[in-house]
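Weekly structure sync - notes
Attendees: PM, LS, DV (DV joined late)
Agenda: review two folding runs queued last week.

Item 1: First target. Sequence and structure tokens pasted below for the record.
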Amino acid sequence: MDKELERIQKFYDVIIEFFVNYSFQLIGAIIIFLLGWYVANKVSAFVRRICEKNELDVTLTKFIVNIIKFSIIIGVAIVAIGKLGITLTPFIAGIGAASLGAGLALQGTLSNYGAGLSIIIGRPFIVGNTISVDGVFGVVEEIRLAHTILSTEDGEQITIPNKHIIGEILVNSFEYRIVESVVGIDYESNPEEAIKVISEVLNDFDGEIISKESKAQVGIKEFGDFSINIEVRYWAHTKLFFDTQYKVNLGIYKALKQNNINIPFPTYNIKK
């Protein structure tokens, strides 16, 4: 019991001695860190306003603001630790060794971060663009350092690791995505009349659904065994891609019927 009391007394004496000798340094370090935190928030808010004023990309703005904020906080933390009389050299060496080990263990994750940094700086696409990559497509909702998030017309959310974007073939079609379809008409019909009818159907759709800036293309693609095949190409809004395609196909079918333009079906001569 006496030994335990003696240990507690020694521990208590060490605590008292520490606060007596380092109380002012500790208070100073806390004040420096709090002031640094305040300055970091103010500076980052100021930088954010400048970026927004110059209409800089949202993702790039967040990246710049966070880098500035954390750089200031880390610098202030180093100063505050130095105020306590703690030598940082062994600490920095330890961080370097730990970073090397972590880097080897997290190569895949770090490659995602590197690719994300390349996307943010290079800006091959921005939030709101439609991209097709690695067999999937969707509207870019958010670009993070580790991954990029896409959304689809069905309300699905697709998360793509950034290392699967950089170095791959990337298609950026901005707000729209191209629709390509083929309509067959019989050889008795006038293809010029059919092209005119289909073009009128496309023009009747709103500009927010089918792009008016990129003109739709309608023309003869090939001469098939049973039909003249007319190809239809237009840009549909990504968020309404399939819905627009279905409505356009129905509109074309009705318009061809109304104008007595027949869509043939294959016929075969079967020898008995």
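Item 2: Second target, run right after the first with the same settings.
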Amino acid sequence: MSYHHPRLRLAVAGLALLVAGTAAAQSTVRDEALDAQRTQAELQARIDNADEAVRDKLQVLRQAREETRRLSDYNAELAPLVERQAETLARRDEALSTLSATREALPGLMRDMVERLRAWVEHDMPFLQDERLARVESLERLLADPETSRDEKLSRMLAAWRAELDYGREIDAWRGELAGDSSREVDYLRLGRVGWYYLTPDGHRGGVWKAEQGDWQPLEGAALAEVRKGLAIARERRAPALLELPVSQPVSASETPAGEDA
């Protein structure tokens, strides 16, 4: 076939232009499709990244809520303990305030205690009186000593009072002089503050101290035998047993010095 015919040449040229235009259009469509795909991929990546960030934030939020719940439970458990500790601190503060006031009043209180102790010894049955008065005088000197600490003074004071109180619960025996027209050695027996007796070494004479009369009253017969038994018990030479002896003073008054309240 010959292309020299004018119309045919025009047709061929038009077809060539049509093919070229179609190819260009297809290339443009492919480029636009590729751009759309890239855009879609980028958008999906951003969405995925956003989803991941949201998930991370949600996980952090859940952890924060769980931690808040645990802290709330822990605080609820601690609340009673904190309240008790606050009450304890309040009591300690009150005790410290009271202690401070007590420390300020302590010197006068100790002087009063020494005076009461001396009055007790002086009005009590006069057993071991020299020894007991010497203890009181030692306390008086101690209180006047500025070099001695307040704690030491209080400790010695309480020890002296304990010693006096112990006399009321003890059975005791010792040998000493009996004052009178002619001093002589005797064996003493003391039953707390209820009874105080003496017996001569030969065992033939003895007496009971009578607080109301402030003097010795003689004992005879069975009473002397009871004193001998009491001396043996006090010296742990025989087993404890009941003693039938007259008392030196009423039991109700045996623990209380004259002029003092129990």
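Discussion on item 2: The chain is about 65% helix and 10% strand.
Action: LS to circulate a short write-up before next sync.
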